[in-house]
Specification:
The chain is an alpha+beta fold. The protein contains four helices and eight strands, in the order ββααβββαβββα. The strands form two sheets. The chain has a five-stranded mixed β-sheet, covered by helices on one side. Helix 1 runs parallel beside helix 2. The relative contact order is 0.13.
Length: 227
């Protein structure tokens, strides 16, 4: 997971960690953990862990009650046991799988991808993708708006790539209204934009994503990408 830079030594590297608890049999978590400069690493790891906890949160993901990933795991398992106590004849099995990886790292910016699949009943489980962008100098998470020096011009350019990636616009909720996705991240190939299921189209459409090469995107980016 370590991406090397030719400019100067990176302050942060990453190792893969598996997080579980003693009585866990429903949740599988494999995510990157930042190591190196303590202040930067703690800031990055805090955001990654918060994202994981939000994926395991039952109910409103904006009101996380757990104080750690381990507590979230135990709560998820407890809720499943309560469900089985209430519905002992149910064949439903709850499970959650969360994986993370560093998809880009430079001296300026670090991008981490977190994917989750959580199944607590219903016709299907829910797949969710999150891109987390961090300032490599501070470890602070970068809001999407702070990635661009001209968001209006970038939006116009991104729409051309979006239109080229959509074969059937009739599947979109608002086929004539383009908006940037929640998830924007850096990769070695270029800037990736990804829409989660239900964000702009039904579940059956799946994840919608496209990549803009840095040759096209860099003029609009505060943090420049590899070319």
């Amino acid at each position: 997971m370590l991406f090397n830079s030719c400019e100067e030594e990176l302050k942060i590297s990453f190792v893969g960690v598996n997080i579980t608890t003693e009585n866990n049999d429903s949740v599988e978590i494999n995510i990157p953990e930042a190591i190196g400069d303590v202040t930067i690493a703690e800031a990055i790891n805090s955001e990654i862990n918060h994202t994981v906890m939000s994926e395991l949160q039952m109910g409103d993901a904006e009101t996380i009650t757990s104080k750690s990933v381990e507590e979230s795991i135990d709560t998820f398992n407890k809720e499943y046991k309560n469900f089985m106590n209430d519905f002992p004849d149910s064949a439903q099995v709850w499970d959650a799988e969360i994986d993370g990886e560093v998809i880009y790292q430079s001296n300026e910016i670090i991008s981490v991808s977190i994917t989750s699949y959580v199944n607590t009943g219903g016709a299907h489980g829910i797949f969710h993708l999150s891109f987390l962008n961090f300032n490599a100098e501070t470890g602070e998470r970068i809001p999407n708006g702070n990635l661009f020096n001209d968001i209006v011009a970038f939006n116009k350019m991104a729409k051309t790539y979006f239109d080229a990636s959509i074969k059937d616009k009739s599947t979109l909720f608002e086929k004539d209204n383009f908006t940037l996705p929640v998830n924007i991240g850096y990769t070695e190939e270029g800037l990736i934009l990804a829409y989660n299921v239900y964000e702009i189209a039904p579940y059956s459409t799946g994840l919608i994503d496209f990549t803009i090469p840095y040759e096209e995107a860099d003029d609009y980016l505060v943090f420049k990408g590899f070319r």
